[in-house]
Structures are given as structure tokens and as C-alpha cells.
Design goal:
25% strand; 2 domains; alpha/beta; 14 strands; Peroxisomal Thiolase, Chain A, domain 1
Length: 333
């Protein structure tokens, strides 16, 4: 008789216990960028809603930002680092192919031999990380998972690029996910649209730079294509996430989309017909677009400004380069 293969099982439910944040210490106003792109403060504010963005000094890395955010999340969660069974870092800012940012962060935080890996899903990376943390815990692989979105996008900026350079900031946001006696994370909606692969891209490759074919690769985008895709197609994904969670827009306490552009955030709210009572993350105004870090940073700020939102439902959706997307409803810690 053949033996029966054993599969692991964990708790039925998971939730986010606490959040942590780290923003670049340099405050960069629009006036510091407009000459390079032949623009104005008014033009940037009107198109993006950004007043200033936070960037990190040259010596500060995405690992440093991730470590600071992760340490705060662990402390607030009231657990010890050695209880972390996995560290997941969503990033497009690791300047080396290896080692991963996550392994260094796990070491820095005292997480011992926790599983550690990076996700490269750009602005949807944090939503992907939350989905994976939920699965790792409910299958019994880990008791607690640290999910971090960490970016130092200023390393990949061409100051003269008018499509994206003035949008980008540096920061990290972290969440501790763990077992729960109630449903704190809904089914995640994850996907991609490779037909638009080139709408947010790099100007070259590391190999091309080595061979003298291109300079240091920097980010650029087709702004109007991204705008239309985000507002119309991603609104459908957001609605699907609500439907899978079994709630409606009227049940939400907060809506926190990826902080791509204030116009996109505002249009999202209109398309979803969000009630005026719903708090909306608008961290982009003073932090900038921090890709994978933007959702946890915006959530962290919203809870600082509205602590009464704790315990309410929040719809979060990330979307960006690839093009990839991810969304779920969470209970705010």
C-alpha cells in the first residue's frame, strides 16, 4: 500500500497586524525639477497632483529603507523577529541581480533563517506580496510573513524625461501578516496584460550599457496609454475585488490605489462611485510615486491621520509596468 502524501494546513484566516514606513529624507519640490523638463510647478500639479516628492540621499539604499519600515511593522505588531517565517520584498530598485533585497533585510532585522525572496511586479508588487503572505500562512508554511514594498526610484531617473521623471520618489512600506480569528484579507485578484509590455519601460539594459549600446537605463512611460488603461481597465479589477470580497463600495472605510497620479486616483473614485464617506489615499501629493511602496505608505499615512479607520475595510489595488495588476480588500490594522 502506497503511503499517503501529507500536505500542510494552517489557520483559516489571516490579517495585517501592523504597518511600517520609511520615506526618503530629501524633500524635492517641483521647482527643483522644472528646468530640466522645460516645465512649471503649475503644469506638474495640474497633471499629477504632486507638490513635492521624497527622495533618498545617494548613500541610502532600498535595503536601508526596507529595513526601517520592516522594523517599525514588527515592533507595532508585537511579535519578535524570529517569529517571521518569510520576508517578501516587492521592488524594481535592486541594482544587482543577486543577492535579493529580502535576504539582507531578513538578516538586518534578526529574522534568522526565514524564507526570503523578492517580487518584481512593479507597482502591483505589494498587492502580490499580500496575496502570497495570505497563502503561505493559510497553508502552514509560515506563522507570520513580513511584506515590504521598497523602492529607490531616483536611481533610475533621467531628469530630462518629461514622461515620468518628475513623478518618482523613494520609500518603503511594510506589513506584518499573521493568523487571525476573522477574515482580514479577501481573495486577491492578480493578473497581467503583456500586450502593453512596452508602455512603462527602461531606456536600455545593463548588458547594453556594458557593451556601449546605451547609457545607464532609466524609466519612461507612455502617459496617456497608462492613464486610460488604469482608469478604465483597473476600475473593473477593483470592482471584481469588491465582488469577490462579498462587499460593496458603500461598505468601504478606505480606498487606497497605487499612487500613480492624483488624476488617476480621483477618476478611480468617480468610476467606482465611492461614497463621500470613503477615505481615499492621496499620499502622492507629498511623497510622489514610489511604485511597490506606494500602497503601504499611503495606508500608513491614512491611519496616522485617521486612526478611527482601524478595523474598517480597505480596497487596495496596484497596477503598473508589465503591465501587471493586483487587488484585494483588507481589514485595516
Amino acid at each position: 500500500m502506497s503511503p499517503t502524501l501529507q500536505q500542510s494546513h494552517g489557520p483559516q484566516f489571516t490579517r495585517i497586524y501592523a504597518l511600517g514606513a520609511a520615506r526618503g529624507e530629501l524633500v524635492v519640490g517641483n521647482d527643483e525639477l522644472i528646468e530640466a523638463i522645460d516645465s512649471s510647478d503649475e503644469w506638474i500639479r495640474k497633471r499629477t497632483g504632486i507638490i513635492e516628492r521624497r527622495r533618498a540621499p545617494k548613500e541610502v539604499t532600498a535595503v536601508d529603507l526596507a529595513t526601517i519600515a520592516g522594523a517599525e511593522a514588527i515592533t507595532k505588531a508585537g511579535i519578535s523577529p524570529d517569529q517571521i517565517g518569510a520576508v517578501i520584498v516587492a521592488t524594481i530598485s535592486n541594482p544587482v541581480v543577486t543577492p535579493s533585497i529580502s535576504t539582507l533585510v531578513a538578516e538586518n532585522l534578526g529574522a534568522g533563517t526565514a524564507a526570503a525572496y523578492d517580487i518584481e511586479a512593479a507597482c502591483a508588487g505589494y498587492a502580490y506580496g499580500i496575496a502570497q503572505a495570505d497563502s503561505l500562512i493559510r497553508t502552514g508554511v509560515a506563522e507570520y510573513v513580513l511584506v515590504i514594498g521598497a523602492e529607490k526610484l531616483s536611481d533610475f531617473v533621467d531628469p530630462t524625461d518629461r514622461s515620468i521623471s518628475f513623478l518618482l520618489g523613494d520609500g518603503a512600506g511594510a506589513a506584518v501578516v499573521g493568523p487571525s480569528d476573522f477574515a482580514g484579507i479577501s481573495k486577491s485578484i492578480l493578473g497581467s496584460d503583456g500586450s502593453k509590455w512596452g508602455t512603462i519601460k527602461m531606456s536600455g539594459t545593463a548588458v547594453g550599457m556594458r557593451d556601449g549600446e546605451n547609457a545607464w537605463p532609466t524609466l519612461s512611460q507612455e502617459g496617456q496609454t497608462v492613464y486610460r488603461w488604469a482608469v478604465w481597465e483597473m476600475a473593473k479589477v477593483a470592482q471584481q475585488a469588491l465582488d469577490e470580497a462579498g462587499i460593496t463600495a458603500a461598505d468601504l472605510t478606505a480606498f487606497i490605489p497605487h499612487q500613480a497620479n492624483m488624476r488617476i486616483v480621483d477618476e478611480f473614485a468617480k468610476v467606482l462611485k465611492l461614497p463621500e464617506s470613503v477615505l481615499i489615499g492621496r499620499d502622492i501629493a507629498t511623497t510622489g510615486n514610489t511604485s511597490a511602496a506606494s500602497i503601504p505608505l499611503a495606508t500608513h499615512r491614512l491611519l496616522e491621520e485617521h486612526p478611527e479607520a482601524s478595523g474598517g475595510f480597505s480596497l487596495q489595488i496596484g497596477f503598473g509596468a508589465g503591465l501587471v495588476f493586483g487587488a484585494q480588500v483588507i481589514v485595516l490594522p
